[in-house]
Amino acid sequence: MTDAQETAAGGAAQPPSQDSAPAPVPLLEPGDGIPPVIADEDGLAAVVAAFAAGTGPVAVDAERASGYRYGQRAYLVQLRRAGSGTALVDPVACPDLSALAAGLDGAEWVLHAATQDLPCLRDIGMVPGTLFDTELAGRLAGFPRVGLGAMVENVLGYTLEKGHSAVDWSTRPLPEPWLRYAALDVELLVELRYALEKELERQGKLEWAREEFAAIAAAPPPPPRKDPWRRTSGMHKVRRRRQLAVVRELWQTRDRVAQRRDVSPGKVLSDAAIVEAALAVPESVDALAKLSGFGNRTGRKQLQHWQNAVDRARALPDSALPQPGQAPGGPPPPRAWADKDPAAAARLAAARAAVTAHAERLSLPQENLITPDTVRRLCWEPPTDHGPDAVAEVLRSHGAREWQIEQTLPLLTAALTASAD
To answer: Which regions are flagged for Low complexity bias (predicted)?
Structure first.
């Protein structure tokens, strides 16, 4: 019987022990030195040939300029493979890396927090066939800290210098300390992958991880987010529909400016300033200038630009105002369930308690055992038949993997059945 089977029978999976680990060793330099940044077609062709000739998994990482530039494009791609060494590729100078992806055909890609990097890698033609996500592996294995630095330290006994993780990677030329940091990010990624594979196998969770990795690799690009302006920080303060319209107009105006200037939207106008204007709904530039975020450093022309957006929202007929709350299509916020549907609230409370307890027994985060959104949707609109087959089909329809269904189906079926009695 595996550890996971023992857990399902009532035991508890044991997270990896870190009590007796020796002091970590600082990793200050890449073993092969800092490679040159590849920024032309000849250099890229040489990298493609070298990595196609390598063996085993390939470590892949990408650096973005979040907080500095508009969007999430890659500004540096790092790779390492046995027999190939480490490569640093500039995707601004070499925007099509599909030949590199083709050269890696059949190789497993090792990424840390793969879902963060895959969108920007996809934009430059790099899409893995199979992958191993070391962050997700750490979560499934029960590590309390799953950042790359923490995982390398706790699993392999080395410390990585992380001082450049939030720098502006669109800078050219890239400073040498940043390149050293970037090369070190893939230096031990394959070694970490093998160590985590052993730990997952020890805990009986390796097949679970493989299902998760396959789902990530096979997932299509996400559709554009509906009403992205609703994710403005501080939106919980905005209650009235007219105020929501001000948020929408200011957000959309800011987004157009940020895209045109290729800067992070927050550098154009802060979320806090948008919410402040929405709450006040100012009627003039002078009134707007008195609000936090629109002070002395904002020129008269800029102020008029933002006031024009507010005026557009003020002029909208009631029929064109946005509705409060999230876009339709999902259950309401759980805090409203007790009033809207007490039976659904009871189902959710029972399901959450059971799933949380089982996740603790398995030593993994509850959201990795089954997503909270899946549990909410099941409990809000349960199948007429509360039997296991019907519940399992609902879970699959919401993207649950087979291992997740196997682990949670008895719990969720019992929660639905108990609340119906």
So the answer is: 12-22
151 and 143 Cβ atoms separated by less than 8 Å: yes
pLDDT in tens, 369-408: 999 999 999 999 999 988 999 999 999 999 999 999 999 9
CB atoms within 10 A of CB 328: 7
Q: What DSSP string describes 344-356?
A: HHHHHHHHHHHHH
- Give the span between the Cα atoms of 17 and 393, in whole angstroms: 37
Each residue's pLDDT tens digit, 50-83: 999 999 999 999 999 999 999 999 999 999 999 9
Residues 41-79, buried b or exposed e (16+ Cβ, 10 A)?
eebbeebbebbbebeebbbbbbbbbeebbbeebbbbbbb
CA angle 161, 162, 164 (to 5 degrees): 115
Q: Quick one: which H or E segment has residue 93?
A: none
User: CA 134 to CA 197: how far, in whole Å?
Assistant: 9
DSSP reduced 3-state for 108: strand
Q: Which of 116, 92, 10 is nearest to 44 (CA)?
A: 92
What is the DSSP-derived secondary structure letter of residue 51? H
Query: Over the Cα atoms of the chain, what is R_g?
Result: 25
Query: Mind spelling out the 3-state secondary structure of 8-40?
Result: HCCCCCCCCCCCCCCCCEEECCCCCCCCCEECC
The CA angle 204-392-202, to the nearest 5 degrees, is 5
Task: List for the chain the helix, strand, coil content (%; round to 5).
Answer: 55, 10, 35
Taking the model in full, what pTM does it have? 0.90
- List the helix and strand counts (H, then E) for the chain: 20, 8
Alpha carbon distance 145, 371 (integer Å): 20
Helix or strand (DSSP H, E) at 204 = none
Helix axes 342-362, 372-380, angle to 10 degrees: 150
Enumerate domains of the chain plus CATH numbers: 17-218 (3.30.420.10), 228-320 (1.10.150.80), 334-420 (1.10.150.80)
DSSP for 120-187 reads: HHHHTT---SEEEEHHHHHHHHT-S--SHHHHIIIIISEEE--TTTTS-TT-SSPPHHHHHHHHHHHH
